[in-house]
Amino acid sequence: MPEITVEGLSKAFGQERALNSISFSVHDKEFLTLLGPSGCGKTTTLMSIAGFQRPDEGAISCGDQVFFDQARNVDLAAEDRNLGMVFQSYAIWPHLTVFGNVAFPLKIRRMKKDASRRRVTETLDLVEMADYAGRYPHELSGGQQQRVALARALVYAPTVLLLDEPFSNLDAKLRERTRAWLKGLQHTLGLTTVFVTHDQDEALSMSDRILVMNGGRILREGTPEEVYRHPRERFVAEFLGQCNFLTGSVSAGADGGAVLRTAEFGEGIAVPAAHAGPSGTIAVRPEDIEIGAAFEPGTAATGASGTAGIAGIAGPEGTVLDASYLGDHYQYRVAVGTVQLSVRSQRPLAPGPVRVRIPPGVATFVD
Fold first, then answer.
1. What digits encode the pLDDT tens for the residues 255-287?
2. Nearest 5°: phi and psi at 6?
3. Would the pTM of this model clear 0.70, i.e. be above it?
4. How many Å apart are CA 32 and CA 163, to the nearest integer?
5. Contact criterion met (CB below 8 Å) for 204 and 42
6. How confident is the model at residue 317 (pLDDT cuts 50, 70, 90)?
7. What is the pLDDT of residues 88-98, one digit of tens each?
8. Are 86 and 162 in contact (CB under 8 A)?
9. Within 10 Å of residue 127's Cβ, how many Cβ atoms?
10. How many CB atoms are located within 10 Å of the residue 322 CB?
11. Cα–Cα dist 146/124, whole Å
12. Are 333 and 321 in contact (CB under 8 A)?
């Protein structure tokens, strides 16, 4: 499959700038996710690649084929781009059967009936919908309708698959099962895929690479682990899961790192990255903070990962303000001085005094 290249793409709607000169590539067989809040520009980007939206500036190409180039006045029609598109609303025809919906793109392309029938049957087998070929959309569940929309997008062997929040109409349990199934299918087919979502769990679980967008710009690009662990910007850290932020003075640390000190953490928090200082802000994930009952020597602290902490928490004292049980972990809101921390642990703790510790290496600087 060819690589998609987007260069200097800009788009405005009246006075509002939806895209501000963004550039990126989607590699062969890669599952790339555009992640961000409503209005960040992710769907405008996808629709521009698909040919349903004309950008004001920039260029889009797929391998050697130029889809759009404003400078050269090139704008290939959507039907000539050979891209598979699955919309948020599925957009399947209510008056056609499952078979008829999937066959429709081949009918437009004037494929012979025998070849079309074979191709539709193969594709319905692929998405596990062959037994429903004669049913109409209103006779299907939301998950089944989504598979029909996907089959329709795959039936003519597109070069790239574009997905615009395809799971948003499914309930939580079905959404979880469907995204695992789709990721497996994408891997089996080796299909270059661009996926749009505002759901962090979908982005983290499905993507080879994530582009976090806001205000028409790409703020962070990387693998799910890179973006989650090293967000670089506060917006990215906040959008991609829960995060605690601490601001304080910065001094040089060991091995080229730094130490951040606040009134609550006077002993300092070791950060494995240099910082110019004299002050800075760090992000710390709730699951990375160790917590234990105050004055409880010999007790090991554990985070969400279940890794053992130190015996007797050597850190500042705090107070558990409230706790929530969430099945595989507890979520605590802990007051440490004037700061309130979100802490995740597998240990049950009663409201009251505790000690907390931020281990070396788990914090990262953000702008």
1. 899 999 999 999 999 999 999 989 999 999 999
2. -115, 125
3. yes
4. 10
5. no
6. very high
7. 877 888 999 99
8. yes
9. 22
10. 9
11. 12
12. yes
